[in-house]
Amino acid sequence: MRTLLAVGIVLALGGCNGSLALAPLPPFAVIGARTGRQWKAIAPTLGGKLDPSSGNVCDSGKAACMTAVVAEMSQRITSLGCSHLAPFATMYRQVSAEIRASATAGRYRDPAYVVHLDSVFSTFYYHALDAWRSGRRNETPQAWRIAFSAAEGQHVSALGDMLLGMNAHISRDLPYALATVGLRYPDGRNATGDVIAVNRDIERATQPMLAQIRARYEPSLQPPRGLPHWVSARELPKIIAAWRLEAIANARDLLSAHSVAARVEVETRIDTTATLRALLIWRATALTHPARENATRNAYCLAHSVVGS
């Protein structure tokens, strides 16, 4: 299980800094059938670069952008109901709420940069989820296919669902989001410090997020049998911090890719690491008695569902 933390990190480190050769093209304008009103107004004109003069609240990094992100997360959580896809979405919403609070309080060197980054990053999740739920599996990255398949098939524990979602979004999506917005502020200063500072928001989000998931989906969140005790819900911030460090290194390599071949090598490494990690998480968190465990988990959720939560 220590491979969950380590795989790919050594390979990802050591990338040189350079100019962007081949920019990622995330599907900003793709709007799913379940997209909320606020995000429908933002997504079509969302761009890859922070522009303080933009009329798009996310491109300009305004606080209203994070309000829209949190609202979109809530919209999706409501639509998921007791689906096993919901714990990760709940986790993501709480982290986004903490980022909104920190941006509003000025806890970052450049709050607008973090707000814009978070909006771009969230788009990767929306697109993957919408593509999967609409049957467009060929548009869903492999790490997300594994996460969504495990959740919809009810193959793993709630902790497994959360880890699989975290892995797909951080190990696979975050390098591309960082490469899209760049690792520098508009004035040229290094923005990596603010990217790492988000880890503090993730730590602050952990307890309220776990409380929400225990109250709605799974009361224990205990690691399944055979999973080392140190891989537990309370260890999530450490796991996330390690994966986010790896993502920063991979983003640097994407930005410094000087040819199509170099870019393909980096992208292959990112996707392979995320896919391998997903398979390891699935194996480590697979249910021992699926029928019994899922019956208990699903009944608990139905008994504790709150409309509009």
Structure description:
This protein has 309 residues and is mainly alpha-helical. The protein has one domain. It is 63% helix and 0% strand. The protein has 12 helices and no strands. Helix 6 crosses helix 8. The radius of gyration is 18 Å and the shape is globular.
What are the salient characteristics of this protein?
309 residues, mainly alpha, 12 helices, 63% helix
Describe this structure in a few short sentences:
The chain has about 300 residues and is mostly helical. The protein has helices spanning about 5, 10, 35-40, 65-80, 85-105, 110-135, 140-150, 160-180, 190-215, 235-255, 260-285, 290-305.
Strand and helix map with partners:
Blueprint: H1 3-6, H2 9-12, H3 37-42, H4 63-80, H5 86-105, H6 111-133, H7 142-152, H8 158-181, H9 192-216, H10 236-256, H11 260-285, H12 290-303
Helix pairs in contact: 4-5, 4-6, 5-6, 5-8, 5-9, 6-8, 7-8, 7-11, 8-10, 8-11, 9-10
The total of helices stands at 12
- Compute the average pLDDT: 87
* Residue share in β-strands: under 5%
Uncertain runs with pLDDT below 50, 5 residues or more?
8-23
Radius of gyration: 18 Å
Shape: globular
Topology pattern, helix = H, strand = E: HHHHHHHHHHHH
Distance between the ends: 34 Å
- Report the helical percentage: 55-70%
* Biggest β-sheet description: none
Structurally, how many domains make up the residues?
1
Backbone structural class: mainly alpha
Instruction: Give the total of beta strands.
Output: 0
